[in-house]
Amino acid sequence: MKIFEEFTEKRLLYHWSGINSNFNIDVFRKMIELYKHSGTGIDKEAFEASFYGVSGNQINWLVYNINRACNNKDLEQQVIGTEQVSQVLPAILRLQH
After folding, report:
1. Number of domains in the chain
2. What is the chain's mean pLDDT, rounded?
3. Domain of 86?
4. How far apart are CA 16 and CA 12, in angstroms?
5. pLDDT at 70 > cutoff 80
6. 88/27 Cα distance (integer angstroms)
7. CA 37 to CA 15: how far, in whole Å?
8. What is the model's pLDDT at position 17?
9. 4-28 core/surface letters (b: 16 or more CB in 10 A; e: else)
10. What is residue 83's predicted lDDT score, i.e. its pLDDT?
11. Strands, DSSP E only, in the chain?
12. Are 24 and 67 spatial neighbours (Cβ–Cβ below 8 Å)?
C-alpha cells in the first residue's frame, strides 16, 4: 500500500505542475523541494514509476483520440478527438525535455 501511496503522490507533482496544459518547471521544482523538506522524501523508483504512469496515460489518451478523430462517424466526436490530440501531443512532447 505504501508503494501505491508514493506512486500517487508523485503523479500529483506532475499534475500540480500543469503537465497536461501549461507545464511550469518552476512549480514542479518547488513541489519537489516541498516534498524533500516535508520529511516525506522522494523515492527515485516511485518517482520514475509515476513519470511512466503519467506518460502511459497520456499516450493511451492520445491513441484513443486519434481513433476518435479519424474513425468516428459522429462529427462532434471527431472535433472533440481532434481537440484532445491537439492538447495531449504537446504535453507528451514536453515530457521529453
Report:
1. 1
2. 76
3. 2-94
4. 6
5. yes
6. 20
7. 20
8. 59
9. eebbebbbebbeebebbeebeeeeb
10. 94
11. none
12. no
Residue linked to cell 472533440? 80
For residue 60, what pLDDT band results from cuts at 50, 70 and 90?
very high
Question: Residue 82, CB half-sphere, CA atoms under 13 Å: how many?
Answer: 10
Compute the distance between CA of residue 54 and CA of residue 65 in angstroms, rounded to an integer: 17
Question: Whole-angstrom Cα distance, residue 51 to residue 90?
Answer: 16
Residue 38 vs residues 33, 42, 68: alpha-carbon distances, Å: 8, 10, 43
Does the pLDDT at position 2 exceed 50? no
Q: Which residues contact 92 (CB under 8 A, 6 or more apart)?
A: 55, 58, 59, 62
